[in-house]
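Re: the 73-residue chain
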Amino acid sequence: MTDKSVTTAYLGQYTDEHAEAIAGALEEAGIVWWHKKASRLTRTLFAGDWGVRLFVDEQRLDEAKAIAEKVKG
């Protein structure tokens, strides 16, 4: 989901499976989100770069954090 008028904030870095589930829950809640997936190149250059980084509407960051925690269990 994208909206160019929304300022995003970093939600966290997740496995592919968790990111997919969190993104679905964010969409259900109507929260704008964006993702950046680690590429083969960035995984090689930056040892800590793995999985998917999620970014969400800065105004709804607290709500998104709660959703992510609930999804991760």
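Strands lie at 8-14, 33-37, 52-57.
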